[in-house]
Structure formats: C-alpha cells, structure tokens
Model the fold of this input.
Amino acid sequence: MRLLAPLSLLYFSILAGEIYAEIMGDLTVIWLTKPLLMPILLFLFIINSGKNPRKESLFFAAALVFSLAGDVFLMFRKDELFVFGLASFLLGHLAYILSFLGRIKEAQVPLGSRIIFSIPFLVFVGGFLWFLKPYILGSEETAPFFPPVAVYASVIGFMGYMALLRKEGVYYKGFWAVFGGALLFIVSDSCIAINKFVEPIPLSGLIIMSTYGVAQYLMTIGTLKSNKKHHSESI
Done:
C-alpha cells in the first residue's frame, strides 16, 4: 500500500501525543492532535483506493468523515454537544454498516449462522443497556440521554455483528483487522458511556483513545487489504 509506513508512523505519533494530552488534561494539545487523526486515515484510505473505488469504499470514507465530526463535537466536553457527537458517530457506524453490505452479500452466510452470530451482540446490547439504565434514568439531567444512548448501543452492536458477517472470514487477513477494529470500537464507546454516566474510569483518556485510535486504524487497513484482494481476484 502506498505511503503505509510513513502515514502509519505519523498517525500513531499523533495518537500517542493525543493520549498523553488526555492523561495530563492538556486541552490545547488535544485540540491540536485529535482533529488530525481521521484526516490522516482518510488520506491513507483515498490514495490506496484506486481511481474507481468500490461503492463500499465511498461509504467507508464517509464513516471516517463522520468520525472526525464526532471527535470535534466531543472535544468541547459539553453536555449540549454530546448528543451531536453521538449523532455523528451514529452516522459513522451506519456508513460502516453500508460499507460491509457488499461483502456480506457475496458471503451468502446461511441463516442459521447469522442467527448464531447475532446472539453475543444481542446479549451485549441488552445487558449493557440494562446496566446503564438506572444510572442514566436516575438523574433528571441525564434521563433525556437514555433513548439516544439506547439507539447508539443498538447500532454499534449491529455494526460489530455486520463486521463478523463479512465474506473474508477464514480467508483473508483483512477480515480479522476489520472485525478486531469493530470490537475495539465497541469497547471504546462502552467506556465513554461508563465514564460519563456511571463513574469516572481511571486513566479513561488512555483507555478510550487507545482503543478508539487502534480500532479506526485496523478497520481502515483491513478494508484496504480486503479491497486489494477483491480487486486482484477480479482482474
């Protein structure tokens, strides 16, 4: 892949700086580093997608753009903007789901397998919302957040499920990168919810940003590998 090494080094260097700033509470450095992460991945993705990218690639690029918007909204750390950040990432996850559809259609996964694969995600979403419900609804200030949080948890769980259904499964490395990234994304967002509505997590900035940053990188690299493999087989 073109410029993979230098852009990866740049990305993780900025991510490390952002994580350090989160730990130290340095908002100035956060505002300098965090908005750079998704544009770097977007540039890496675009230059390696070819002149005629698959439809899935366009949705994936849109997901990175929505993720950038979500990063910016959440940087303000204001409750009135939290929902906008949530909505941006929600659109991003929907775009990721749309980017997975082509692979899933090609996979022709049997109905029985689809049902079995859905069980852990249904259990997670239901259990997590059951856990969060008393904390969110227990305060008049946070109660209005429960419906959007419930929708968001359902969508991100569905995103993880859809990542599992992608064709590459046992065949290509691209699958494991994307699926692993999807799971890390779920971990990151779950930590955000716990940190905001339940109780502060020690070193939350380190945990949330490291899982989020690695998740986005793995999903980007995995998608590029999948597209490259698909393109080589189509020639």
User: Anything to note?
Assistant: The chain has one domain: 4-234. The radius of gyration is 18 Å. The chain has a mean pLDDT of 90. Residues 4-234 form one domain.
